[in-house]
Amino acid sequence: MSDTETAQSTTEAVARSQTMLGHESDADHAAAARDVTGQPQDDAAAGPDAEMATGQVPPSYADFTLPEGIEIDAQALTAAKQLFAADGLSQERAQNYLDLYSTKLKEAAEAPYQLWAETQRDWQQQVKVDREIGGARLAGNLAVAAKAVDRFGGDALRQALNVSGAGNHPDVIRAFIRIGKAISEDALVMGRGVAQENRSRADRLYPNDPLKSRD
Known about the structure:
Blueprint: H1 3-21, H2 24-32, H3 48-54, H4 74-86, H5 91-129, H6 138-152, H7 154-164, H8 170-197, H9 201-205
């Protein structure tokens, strides 16, 4: 999920909470019902007439500043402004709330990527110090593994290993190294077999016969 989608889902939840508590007119009603001490007045004194009598006007807000990479859709931002106005927040105070929300939203969005990067670095370190495949033998082993990848998957397999991060996992690397060594040994044995088949049947049956004619 992108930062924008995360922010949108969160702010939509705020808007739904507002709806469950009452309509917009109810919020205005509650805001107008507060006296100078901040305590609710009697219902009889509430309403548009009471608001006009006290001279209290819900605050309006200029555009808020959002961190780079963070976006809030217009509908959600309108809902947030309504909540700010209902509580009588100043522009500065409302901006502080948005700053806190944006920071937490960005941290939540980046957390999975940071965990993925840390996991990749941990896997690479495990490979480097592995007694079987790491250390001074690592470069040669990786070359052997690369041959196995080329033979059994090529670029498509290599891309899958890179995108998923599986190409850094110690056991995956170990498996491809073993596959690469196995196909190298098979090629070597087959090569020897072909050379042996080129000899005559007598040579294969009696390779050390002293009576054989010598050239």
